[in-house]
Amino acid sequence: MNRSHENEHLGFSDTPVLPDSGYTVHDGTRPQPKVVTPGSDGSPPADATVLFDGTSLESWEPVRENETGRWKILEDGSMEVVPSEGDIQTRKSFGDIQLHLEFRCPVKIKGNGQGRGNSGVFLMGRYEIQVLDNFQNPTYSDGTVGAIYGQTPPLANAVRQPGEWNLYEIFWEAPVFENGERIKAAKVTAILNGIVVQHATELQGPTINKALPPEEPQESTGPLRLQDHGDLVRFRNIWVRRLGQRDELF
Length: 250
Ligand code: MG
Fold this sequence. Notes:
This protein is mainly β. It folds into two domains: 1-32, no CATH class; 37-250, Exo-inulinase, domain 1 (Jelly Rolls, Sandwich). The chain is built from no helices and 15 strands. Strands 1, 3, 4, 6, 9, 12, 13 and 15 form an eight-stranded antiparallel beta sheet that branches. Strands 2-5-14-7-8 form a five-stranded antiparallel beta sheet, with no helix packed on it. The relative contact order is 0.21. Magnesium ion binds at residues 118-120, 128, 130-131, 227, 229. Magnesium ion binds next to strand 7 and strand 8.
């Protein structure tokens, strides 16, 4: 407990003690929430780590050695997948985060099912939240936009029409390992275009295609990775904030 008695006058000390924190109900000495200035007109909040603002890819690097990761920066302030240049990932690693990201699937419809507007957001480099043009384009449920790919379908298909911008707000809790064992699974809540698509969903393990999740590396941080699935998907306005108390995982 970190009591700051200068603020005692803000609250009460003759109230019952909350069992989880040791503070009293309405305790004036309980630390004040930090002040964070929100963004306006879609700009990031003051304490965000901006990963892409439309000007440069300097926060990003290729994932695989034989690929360049040279995606295109477009005049509309977005970056676009360049097929076969490969996935890209942030140079920094993150644990528990709030992630803001916008994506747009190609206006020109090409392919169907998993072959239309496919990309993905990989938390910690290995857990994929699907990006796909599912507008009047069904596919297997656990591969639908908003799915934890191969594990958990979204609660709704909330994608917009091809060519329109979609907004993801993702709240990610890293897995926790202790003495060689996972004591807490990774957990995610995701909101797509204002609609909850994952609600405190626990992950079974890392993402893989057509198989059960493989063994999970015992890591609680990793880079944010975006997928090159061969489609001209665009991303813009990408930023993260620390989520919760586990600041050391940022
Ligand atoms: Mg994908």
